[in-house]
Amino acid sequence: SLVSVTTVSLDDIRAQLRPDETLLEYYLQGDTLYVFLITSGTVQAVPLDGAGLVQAVRAFRAALEEPSSTEYLEQAQQLFDRLLRPVASQLATPNVIIVPHGVLHYLPFNALHDGTQYVMERYHLSYLPSASVLGFLDAPPAAAPQTLLAIGNPEFGSRKAPLAHAEREARAIAKTLPDATLLVGKAATETAIKTLGGRYTYLHLATHGVFDPEL
């Protein structure tokens, strides 16, 4: 079901959104980028400027990856102005679901800046590959036995280089909650995630990741 093409009605999508959630779905067509803003009670489509978007996202990522760069903040503000500011007045919920398209799959929306603060300071963002995936998500338990499962720097043998900073990240985040569980190195396995993941409200992964645009 997850890989087949199934049409989901707008009413179904709206019914699956909680009152504290807004879904932003982007679609790039030529030089026009459309964003569809959907809540449990409203729908709005807004055309945006999509010209040069691929180059803008690549430049922003390059600036983020260069420790000595001073250009990232200006680019973060420019991308916020293009992608979020036109609908910012309609984002009245604390939780925002991003459904990206094309190069936007590579954009860390949390790192965008409105001139005063980063997006991650304004909203709690989550991502979906498609709005139709909402129908496959389980509702969070009313009271999960434990809060956070933090996974950091799994061992991949010679296939992947170790990520020391990812392990530090997982350890630091695990310290923020008294009932968190931390798994790093050999303990951070796929089996452990599948076995334990459902017992926690939050799952934090600090590891290698690959985005396959063909899937």
Overview of the structural elements:
This protein has 215 residues and is of the alpha/beta class. The protein starts with 9 loop residues before the first helix and ends in a 9-residue tail after the last strand. Helix content is 27%, strand content 25%. The strands form two sheets. Strands 3-2-1-4-5 form a five-stranded mixed sheet. The chain is globular, with a radius of gyration of 19 Å. It is built from seven helices and eight strands; from the N terminus they run αβββαααβαββαβαβ. Helix 2 runs antiparallel to helix 3. The mean pLDDT is 89.
- Biggest sheet overview: 5 strands, mixed
First and last CA, distance? 14 Å
Placed side by side, the strands forming the largest sheet appear as 3-2-1-4-5
Give the tally of β-strands.
Answer: 8
Low-confidence runs of at least 5 consecutive residues: none
Fold blueprint:
Elements lengths: L9 H7 L4 E9 L2 E7 L4 E7 L3 H13 L6 H12 L1 H4 L6 E5 L19 H4 L1 E4 L18 E9 L9 H11 L6 E5 L4 H7 L3 E7 L9
List keywords for this structure.
215 residues; alpha/beta; 5-stranded mixed beta sheet; 3-stranded parallel beta sheet; 7 helices; globular
Kindly summarize this structure in a few lines.
Helix content is 27%, strand content 25%. The protein has helices at residues 10-16, 53-65, 72-83, 85-88, 119-122, 164-174, 190-196; strands at 21-29, 32-38, 43-49, 95-99, 124-127, 146-154, 181-185, 200-206. The strands form 2 sheets. Strands 3-2-1-4-5 form a 5-stranded mixed beta sheet.
